[in-house]
Amino acid sequence: MVKGLAKLDVRPYRPSDADSVRALLHTRPELDDADADRRADMFQWLAEHNPHAGKDATYFVAVDRETEEVLAYIGRMPLDAYWRGEPTRLYFGHDLYMHPDRRNQGASGFFTTMKLYGQVEKSPGPVGLLWTSPLNLEFQRRRGYTEVSSLRLVKVLDPIGKVLPGLPRPVADIGAQVARWSMSFAERSLKRVRGAGVEVSPIRRFDERFDAFAERTARRLPLVVKRDAAYLNWKYIDRPNNRFESFAATVGGELRGFMTLLDGYDEKGEAEREGFIVDYLLDPDETASLNALCHHATLYFLERCAVRIHLMATERRLVEKFNQNLFLSRPVDPLMVINADRGPAGAHLDTLDGWQINCGDSDGLCFWGLGRARE
């Protein structure tokens, strides 16, 4: 039967679906075979090893009723979370894909998409949607999901290219190198002053200190994912094809925060190297550790010739502190929320201040972090 016309059942993903999902991912036109296999490995890791999932489904699949072949799927990441320090449940929807034959059938593709979203809408708690394509964003608006403003913060590391974009290439390269040296000297000097007393060191594995820090810091934040050691090791240490690097800030041996970084190209495939602060957890009322980690991240990406650094922040006090570190706010696609009315009592999930959102809360940058380091 033509895949676009097959009768489908939509159900939770099962580990036995893994080979069929891998075959489906090989139909993605933007992926070569090696990239498709890496994405399949990551899909299976997110689907089968989430330490917060419990009995909740992590993906929903649309399968051919006769052959059980997976022809479409949508991810729903179940997460433990805190609302003002109290435990709660939160979800992030992500990673929608459909076989091209099905998608090109018009009505069949549309109704399959509706069925998949319908499964996510049955979630018992709020579902955030990040990294949404323009087409999916329009679909979500038509479904009546709550739209919340979101901010991406950007720090420019290539001021020469921004101010004088028309320079000849050799002159621009020399100017960029001089600018990087100057910025590196300034960042090191500022780190000694603005991050005085804070030690920044690589994280080889997240340990029990992060459990206590996540619980303690959550009392100072609105709705936030529980960043305990199990979650962080699953997301940034044990995952397949890992390219993330994490750093801890400590004062006198006491943990004061962390950042997870990703070095890579931007989503448009341009030849400029981008830096991403994928994840972090910081006390919004403590400044020196945030400053030290920001300066460390800037030096990290300057050494790798990145032209800018991206991060996402929504909590007002954290946004102000990032602004002071020259991360400038710019509007991006909104956070869409399914079931905003199912949040914890007193949570206002239709406002920016109701959440603390990071780039890594959904899976977008988990998939960006796949594969070969591109030089």
Account of the 3D structure:
The protein contains 12 helices and 15 strands. It folds into 2 domains: 143 residues, Gcn5-related N-acetyltransferase (GNAT) (Aminopeptidase), CATH 3.40.630; 182 residues, Aminopeptidase, CATH 3.40.630.30. Helices cover 35% and strands 26% of the residues. The longest helix is centred in the middle third of the chain and has 26 residues. The protein is globular. Helix 7 packs antiparallel against helix 10. By secondary structure, it is an alpha+beta fold. Strands 1, 2, 3, 4, 5, 6, 9 and 15 form an 8-stranded mixed beta sheet that branches.
How are the SSEs ordered, and which strands pair?
Layout: E1 8-12, H1 18-25, H2 33-48, E2 59-64, E3 70-83, E4 86-98, H3 100-103, H4 107-121, E5 127-129, H5 134-142, E6 146-148, E7 151-156, H6 159-163, H7 169-194, E8 199-202, H8 208-218, E9 224-225, H9 229-236, E10 245-251, E11 254-265, E12 273-282, H10 288-303, E13 308-312, H11 316-324, E14 328-331, E15 335-338, H12 364-368
Parallel strand pairs: 4-5, 12-13
Antiparallel strand pairs: 1-2, 2-3, 3-4, 3-9, 5-15, 6-15, 7-13, 7-14, 8-10, 10-11, 11-12
Helix pairs in contact: 1-2, 7-10
Uncertain spans: 371-375
Helix content: 25-40%
How many extended strands?
A: 15
Q: Roughly how many Å is the radius of gyration? A: 21 Å
Count of discrete domains? 2
Let me know the CATH homologous superfamily of the largest domain.
Gcn5-related N-acetyltransferase (GNAT)
- Please identify the structural class as seen in this structure: alpha+beta
For the biggest sheet, the summary is: 8 strands, mixed
Principal-axis shape equals: globular
What share of the residues does DSSP label as strand, in percent?
25-35%
The CATH topology label of the largest domain is: Aminopeptidase
Q: Tell me the span between the first and last alpha carbons.
A: 44 Å
Order of helices and strands: EHHEEEHHEHEEHHEHEHEEEHEHEEH
The residue-averaged pLDDT reads 87
Q: What is the number of helices?
A: 12
Q: Can you tell me the CATH class of the largest domain?
A: Alpha Beta
CATH architecture of the largest domain: 3-Layer(aba) Sandwich
